[in-house]
Amino acid sequence: MTHFASGSLEAKDVHLAFGSNKVLRGIDLKVAAGTTASVIGPSGSGKSTLLRVMNRLIEPDAGDILLDGKSVLKDNPDELRRRIGMVFQQFNLFPHKSVGENVAFALRKLRKLPKEQARAEALEQLDLVGLRHKADVRPATLSGGQQQRVAIARALAMKPEVMFFDEATSALDPELVKGILALMADLAKGGMTMVVVTHEMGFSRNVSDNVTFMDAGVVVESGPPEQVFSDPRTDRLKGFLSDVL
Amino acid sequence: MDYLNKLGETFFNWKVIGEVLPSMFAVGLPNTLVLAVVSGIIGTALGMVLALMGIARNPVARWIARIYTDVFRGLPAILTILVIGLGFGPIVREMTGVTSPYPMGIAALSLISSAYIGEIFRSGIQSVDKGQLEASRALGFGYGPSMRLIVVPQGVRRVLPALVNQFIALIKESSLVFTLGLLASERELFQIGQDAAARSGNLSGYVAAGIFYLAMTIPLTHFVNWIDARLRTGRAQSRAEKKEPDDAAAVVGKGAHV
Fold it and tell me: Who among A57, A109, A141 is closest to B134 (CB)?
């Protein structure tokens, strides 16, 4: 894997409520440049929402988001999102476009590359995930694992400074999970700053530099994986780990 | 046998049909096509605006779209055409000197069809998975470009069959413009058939008009079926071993209208 020009990311005391439902209640998360932070916790704990607040798909009610040490809340959110790649549980590839065009589309429309150059860069990205030969087929003809690789290539093509993974392997058949996790581990080794929301405790433990355990909209515990997994301090984390491990 | 002969004479008097054919081709068909095609284009454009208003975040836009749709879908076409044609026609005539009832006829047909087409588009757009908008925005596209480039094209594709059905309805409804009173050169298929019937005291003129309508609508019906099958099987080819994930949604989107 190539090395990435990645940045640091920080969420400071982030709050978000939908009506009376307080989804995020003062979240702090610090991800140093080139490191991988995984976020674990039960369903509905606000993990996925936190990702969406950090790239401003959802605007926070209060708090601050810093990319490379600078607050991004006053920036144009569309431009912010070009700097943060995101990979979804359901892949969300564009079904009416070919695999190659899925990757090239934003390059043409947002980075304004000429068609041939966008295509060439897209093929290069597809090559990195081993799917160059599938460039001309539609996503629906690919397996889930292949689709997720395309989604990763699509996000990487924009040369993001940070990558978000929102339960990227949860919709995959068990035998396909490993491949995607290995690809993510490669990215982490390559120096990409990553925030990984996951139920894969093995990945969280072995690949990430920092683990954050969220429950009911707050960070309950956070630290290096050895500490979080081997020496949980709160009953909530102990309970969660005994449920999932 | 006498009755049969009589019926045959009433509906299939070849002399009457033969007499009416030239003006059907020269006048009726072009006029019907102008009415249907122009109001189809305006109705589609207006329908798209209504659909986007109908799903807008602004509640005022949503309400306007809602009320418009309810009114124009809820009225008989002939009433709308008469009210608009007879009500606004004289004003237009005074202001522009145009005496033809076509502008008002086209306006009325466009308003009516846009209400239906708006609902067709809206259901199609809303049937597109939310993840598409999210993925597009996560790449850095704004809301507008995401809708325009990613969501709307997928939604429209799904409702193409329903849209073509609407064009079929429009071809048929264009006949109602006769109620506004047409000059000889303005007559569309139905009016020509009616005139022939009145002149000859024989219904064969209507039959001739009917054949012209069927010649347009039946191919379109089969075109709908063809698109439908193509959408279902995923763009011809047997490439797709798997169902496209949007297949199920597409069926729901169409079912609401066909």
Answer: A57
